[in-house]
Amino acid sequence: MVNLIWALMAIVGILYAMLNGTMDKVNKAIIESANEAVTLSIGLISILVFWLGVMKIAEAAGVLKLITKLMRPLIIKIFPEIPKDHPAMGYILSNFTANFFGLGNAATPLGIKAMQEMKNLSKSDTASRSMITFLAINTSSLTLIPTTVIAIRMQYNSASPTEIVGTTLIASIAGVTSAVLIDRYYYNKESRRK
Amino acid sequence: MSWMTTISVWIIPCFLLIVLITASWKKLPSYELFVEGGKEGVKLAFSLLPFLVGMIVAITILRSSGALGALIGLLTPVLTFIGVPPEVLPLALIRPISGTAALGMTAELIQTYGPDSFIGRLASTMQGSTDTTLYILTIYFGAVGIKKMRYALKVGLLADLVGIIVAIIIVSIVFG
Fold first, then answer.
1. Which residues on B lie below 8 Å from A184 (Cβ)?
2. Which residues contact A77 (CB under 8 A, 6 or more apart)?
3. Chain centroid offset of residue B80 CA
4. Complex ipTM value
């Protein structure tokens, strides 16, 4: 799907330029924007190095574990079908914590582990209620600090690159809350039908 | 909404403070740990590079040809009627499909409209507050061999929609 969208953007653009005489602009844009994108990616290094460095300390210092502990009572309520001390619960919590701190690369393997444990509980190839809740929360991404976005804003000389942290946090809390509620709604709807 | 700005300014330094005090208290080699983690940051930035080049070039072709402007112009009456800034529509549509594609679009929007413009702030908030629903469902369900997704896709996409609506509202309130 991404492949098609990506190709279509360029195809439509070039065809449109043919018909509207903007080919010179397109030609210039291709070279310049590639250069632009490389400059941008290099610029991302600063904040990614800083943030992942800080997170390494946070992890060793047990700050991540503390957050996990604080979230636990709430998460247990959201996943009523998983026994409290089942390994699935541990992986779910670690995945949420990693996502919360913008450690996407660390979060994915933990999330897959969580899914495997949930599959061991359900023993079927149909998505279980807990799996759907888990993924619903994952897809709406609760992130404390959107590091890459801040880095991009920095690159384009924002007067205040971090000013969007507050709005992002509010929007993601709303997103996660509604994910949980929408998930509950469909779950209830489906179980009533049975 | 000055408290929101205060949160935005204080959150990173305070987090850093807590982490460093805890690490020093526990006598951890914090500088060495920082460097070790930082190396992963270099790798991550370079791995993003080809994605960003590909996506930014494609969207720039579409914009510089005038096709994107024409499309946005066509949709403007409907979108402004429901309160959605038409410029962010392409981002809203691609956000659930591909994370790196959305990142490229966010960068392009910030470059075109400026990071401190309404569109720049809105794109930043949208990019940070939702994740790639289709990608996550494919990866996670695929990894453990789930064949029937049931209502997972519906929930994911509806939650994305709510996230985007909230982003528009909150950015309008705080920065509007």
1. none
2. none
3. 22
4. 0.86
- pTM for the model: 0.86
B120 vs A: CB within 8 A: yes
Q: Select from B9, B104, B111 the Cβ nearest to the Cβ of A162.
A: B9
Residue whose token pair is 């909404």: B1
Q: Closest Cα to residue A38, out of B125, B104, B39, B99? A: B104
Distance of CA B22 to the CA centre of its chain: 31
Question: What integer pLDDT is reported at residue B136 of this predicted model?
Answer: 87
Cα distances (angstroms) measured from residue A117 to each of A112, A121, A130, A139, A194: 9, 6, 11, 19, 26
B14 shares contact with chain A (CB less than 8 Å): no
- Cβ(B136)–Cβ(A155) under 8 Å? no
Interval B34-72: pLDDT, tens: 999 999 889 888 888 888 899 889 989 999 999 988 988
| Long-range interactions of A89-98: CB distance < 8 A, separation 24+ | A91/A117, A92/A134, A93/A68, A94/A68, A95/A134, A95/A138, A96/A71, A96/A137, A96/A142, A97/A64, A97/A67, A97/A68, A97/A71, A98/A64
Is the torsion defined by CA of B13, B17, B23, B24 positive or negative? positive
Residue with tokens 């800080």: A54
